[in-house]
TrEMBL record:
InterPro entries: Leu-rich_rpt, Leu-rich_rpt_4, LRR-containing_protein_71, LRR_dom_sf. Gene3D superfamilies: Ribonuclease Inhibitor. PANTHER family: LEUCINE-RICH REPEAT-CONTAINING PROTEIN 71. The chain crosses the membrane at residues 63-85, 91-112. The lineage of its organism: Eukaryota, Metazoa, Spiralia, Gnathifera, Rotifera. Keywords: Leucine-rich repeat, Membrane, Repeat, Transmembrane, Transmembrane helix. It comes from the Eukaryota. It holds the Pfam family LRR_6. This is Uncharacterized protein.
Length: 263
């Protein structure tokens, strides 16, 4: 009877553990979908704004051309009428023609000026079409709630390389975290280079976990070069990153120099 109770308890514990894992995975998926939806909405808003600006420019240009056309027709009618009234005096007819010429020059200059103001140069267009700065409000909020010089756990948050820039600024530099857990994410060699650059002169981070990412052999030299300089990092977890003998050789050479790293 006691053995049966033990088996039941074990089964219940396994079910609870599986449910917890499933719930954690579902939560991460929902957070990832929310972040993707925010980025999509930001891109749509940017494109809509640019389309509205282009439409406004075209409307302004159309109104200007219509106004100029009406003025040209009215000027032609007025010119015909004045020429008819001054037919008896060549002198007055010359004055009318001179006024007409001045008016034509004025309209041409106005048209050129309007065209330059409504059609921006390529350099101006290039400035206005700056790429949207990457943001991850959920990630920033998690880091903001962490204490200074604490453990920041971002395991399984589906982080990508662009997120590492936020982690560097908010967690490593501002929060001065002592442990940074980035396991089970989607970080590649690019993200590893961001981390390496930030940790060269860092003296607060002691534990860095990068297990189950996509660093591969390409990302290892960034970290090993950093570890030849860094004097604070004591533990580095790189398991599950598809590291071959090439990456292992870089790690071996680094350990000949670095005496601080113990794990």
């Amino acid at each position: 009877m006691g053995g049966t109770v033990t088996k039941v308890r074990t089964s219940v514990a396994q079910v609870q553990e599986n449910m917890g894992t499933t719930l954690n995975t579902a939560t991460n998926m929902i957070n990832h979908l929310q972040r993707d939806a925010s980025n999509i909405m930001a891109n749509l808003a940017h494109e809509s704004l640019e389309s509205l600006r282009g439409l406004t420019t075209r409307v302004d240009r159309s109104v200007f051309l219509l106004t100029n056309t009406i003025m040209a027709i009215a000027t032609a009618i007025a010119l015909s009428f004045l020429l008819l009234l001054t037919s008896f005096s060549p002198f007055l007819r010359n004055i009318v023609w001179l006024m007409f010429a001045i008016l034509c020059i004025y309209m041409i200059l106005t048209y050129i000026q309007h065209s330059q103001s409504t059609l921006p140069s390529s350099s101006t267009t290039q400035v206005e079409e700056k790429p949207i700065i990457y943001q991850n409000a959920l990630l920033e909020n998690i880091i903001a709630q962490s204490n200074i010089q604490s453990v920041i756990d971002l395991t399984g948050h589906q982080l990508i390389d662009d997120d590492i820039k936020i982690v560097v600024t908010q967690a490593i530099i501002k929060k001065k975290c002592t442990q940074l857990k980035l396991g089970q994410n989607r970080i590649t060699s690019t993200g590893a280079s961001y981390l390496a650059d930030a940790l060269r002169q860092n003296n607060t981070l002691e534990v860095l976990s990068l297990w189950n990412n996509n660093l591969n052999d390409i990302g290892i030299p960034y970290l090993t070069d950093m570890l030849k300089i860094n004097k604070s990092l004591k533990k580095l977890d790189l398991s599950g990153n598809h590291i071959t003998n090439i990456g292992a050789m870089h790690l071996t050479n680094m350990l000949k120099i670095n005496r601080i790293l113990t794990h």
